[in-house]
Amino acid sequence: MNELLNMKELFTQIIKQDVKPFFSAQGYRTKDLNFNKIEGQLSYKINIQKFKYNTHKELSFYVNYNIHSEELAQYRPALSLGLAHFYARINQIVPAAPERYFLTPEVDVDKFTSDLLLHLDQGLQFLYTLTDARAIIEYYMQRTALHLSEETFGFLLDTGDTETAEQYLKQLQAKYGAEKRWAILEKKYAVVWEKYGSSS
């Protein structure tokens, strides 16, 4: 069957016949290659991103998972519009998934589609473990990540968890303190501390 279709047509067919119905059944709104759902203060978005250099003989794409938290957005309102507080490629949260999916004339379409839908579902199940703002910041704190660090300090201090905020500041300093950007980060963190907590 693959020989009768170029890969762009096959991709369009899989999206229309399999991927969109999958997300619709989960309560997601679909627009092009974006799938969105809002539950409480969390907005979920899954995006299928086509590779830049696809041809009619080979097409590849990424799957990106995002969560926007209204609760975390209040700590950086100027940057909160459309900001993904959690983001990951599918292979970062679903170990069996590839970083990029490939469609070629040789692909077994049924197996490809079955695997893709399984991975998409496993990705959603992971997203749903991040049930609130605290769960999102803890995901990044466990990785000593700079992403969301200002929001993290704002949230922790605003909710009275000064001890965790001070511990995380020490973790970040241990990991990034030797870098030139640390002085800039320290100033940003000081502003957050002044607004939401006591000076350390």
Structure overview:
Helices cover 48% and strands 18% of the residues. With 200 residues, it is α+β, with helices and mostly antiparallel strands. Strands 1, 2, 3, 4, 5 and 6 form a six-stranded antiparallel beta sheet that branches. The relative contact order is 0.11. The mean pLDDT is 93.
The largest sheet is:
6 strands, antiparallel
Overall spatial form: elongated
Structural class: alpha+beta
Distance between the termini: 66 Å
- Strand runs, count: 6
Summed over residues and divided by their number, the pLDDT gives a mean of 93
Order of helices and strands: HEEEEHEHEHHHHH
Uncertain segments of ≥5 residues (pLDDT<50)? none
The helix content, as a percent range, equals 40-55%
Instruction: Classify the beta-strand content into a percent band.
Output: 15-25%
Number of helices: 8
- C-alpha-based Rg, rounded: 20 Å
Name the descriptors.
200 residues, alpha+beta, six-stranded antiparallel beta sheet
Please write out the topology:
Layout: H1 7-25, E1 29-31, E2 34-39, E3 42-50, E4 59-69, H2 70-73, E5 86-89, H3 90-93, E6 101-103, H4 109-127, H5 133-141, H6 149-158, H7 162-176, H8 182-196
Antiparallel strand pairs: 1-2, 2-3, 3-4, 4-5, 4-6
Helix pairs in contact: 5-6, 6-7, 6-8
